Amino acid sequence: MDIKARHTKVVETIKTQYGVLVREDYYGYPQSESNLYMVDSQGALLWFSERARDGDSFANPVRMSSDHSAKCASWNGFDCEIDLKNGKLLHAAFTK
């Protein structure tokens, strides 16, 4: 499946049971929306990931925590756990 970037370039994709998790390059990505999102098999947007802070972005590789959640560190120093069903923030720990 070829994923078309929304704003910058796709740097990571992970196929899950809920769709394909996409992380775009944070550099130059609009601060008004999350650069981590889920698309369906046709490439249609399902959700944007909730962020620990408005304007933050996901800067590091995604780590799968379970079949239902993933973790990703943000530019502002939060290690975020995201619900793969809906993009909601399950937990955010400040690490810097």
The CATH architecture can be given as Beta Barrel
Mean pLDDT: 96
Task: Give the CATH class.
Answer: Mainly Beta
What's the arrangement of strands in the largest beta sheet?
1-2-3-4
What proportion of the residues form beta strands (DSSP E)? Answer: 35-45%
Structural class: mainly beta
Uncertain runs with pLDDT below 50, 5 residues or more? none
What is the number of independent domains? Answer: 1
Q: What is the terminal separation in angstroms?
A: 36 Å
List the helices and strands and how they pair.
Layout (H helix, E strand, L loop, with lengths): L9 E7 L2 E6 L11 E4 L5 E4 L14 E2 L4 E5 L4 E6 L5 E6 L2
Antiparallel strand pairs: 1-2, 2-3, 3-4, 5-6, 6-7, 7-8
Quick structural summary:
By secondary structure, the chain is mostly beta strands.
Q: Could you list some keywords that capture this structure?
A:
mainly beta; Thrombin, subunit H; globular; 4-stranded antiparallel beta sheet; 96 residues; 8 strands
Describe this structure in words.
The protein has 96 residues and is mainly β. It has a single domain (10-94), classed as Beta Barrel (Thrombin, subunit H), CATH 2.40.10. The chain contains no helices and eight strands. The protein has strands at residues 10-16, 19-24, 36-39, 45-48, 63-64, 69-73, 78-83, 89-94. The chain has a four-stranded antiparallel sheet with strand order 1-2-3-4, with no helix packed on it. A hairpin with a 4-residue loop joins strand 6 and strand 7 (78-83). The radius of gyration is 12 Å and the shape is globular. The termini are far apart. The model has no long low-confidence stretch (mean pLDDT 96).
